[in-house]
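Continuing the batch. This is chain 6 of the set; chains 1 through 5 are on the previous pages. Same settings as before, nothing changed between runs. Recording input and output for traceability.
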Amino acid sequence: PSWVQILTFGTLHRQINNPAAFIRDQFDRVAPVIPTDVVTPHELRKKIKNRGLPVPNYFLDPEDDKQFPPHIALLVILQDGEKESQRLNSILYSLAFSLFA
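Output for chain 6:
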């Protein structure tokens, strides 16, 4: 756990600037709830909400223009595996992202 989580007793999470790390963090939070059998997206979102967990934005309604589809999340993870987003880990990018976020 990060210092932010420790100081806020787990109610807040640290800011994540890397898109792939953000997606992994969202998935890791809900991973225990994801069933092994096939369920509809509506049922999956309901199971996550019933456990009091935040629903990852790639699990939300695909018809909603504000949400990105799951294949975009997969592409971000694959690009991270190829170290294409390595430049986003610099202090300058972190500072700029924090100022605008």
